[in-house]
Amino acid sequence: MATRAQRSSGWMADLSLGFKLIEGKTVLSHRERKGPLAVQRSFYPESGVCHVYVLHPPGGVVGGDTLTVKTDLADRAEALITTPGATKFYRSAGSVAKQIQILSLSKQACLE
Fold it and tell me: Edge-to-edge strand order for the sheet containing 50-55?
C-alpha cells in the first residue's frame, strides 16, 4: 500500500545525525529519521574517526523526491559520511528532485 512518502509525489525523507567526541572516539550520539533514509551502524577503520553509511533503499533520486540530511559535529568530533555507491539522479518528466545537505561543525571538528 502506497503512503504519502512514496511514489505519487516522490520520496520525502529527513535524516538528522549528531556526532560527539567521547574519550578520544567520535560516536554517533544522535540519529533521527523520517522516510526512507537510514544509517547502518557506525564503524571505525581508522582509530577514533566515526564512519557511517547513509542508505536510501529506493536506490536513486527521481522527480518529486526531497531528501534532507542534517549533520552536526561537536567540538573535535571526526566523522566520514558516505553511501555504498554513488547516488543516482534519474531523468524526470518535469518534477524537480532535491537533495539538501545541512552541515554544522563546531571548533576543530572534521567532516568528510
Answer: 38-39, 50-55, 78-82, 110-111
Residues 6+ apart with CB under 8 A from 36: 5, 11, 13, 56, 57, 58
Give the pLDDT confidence of 68-103 residue by residue, as tens digits: 999 999 999 999 999 876 667 777 777 888 889 999
pTM for the model stands at: 0.85
Rounded CA gap, 52 and 9, in Å?
29
Which three cell numbers, joined as nine digits, stand for 42? 557506525
Place of cell 547516488: 87
Q: Residue 28 class from Cβ within 10 Å (0-12 exposed, 13-18 middle, 19+ buried)?
A: middle
112 pLDDT exceeds 70? yes
CA-based nearest residue to 75, from 34, 19, 11 = 19
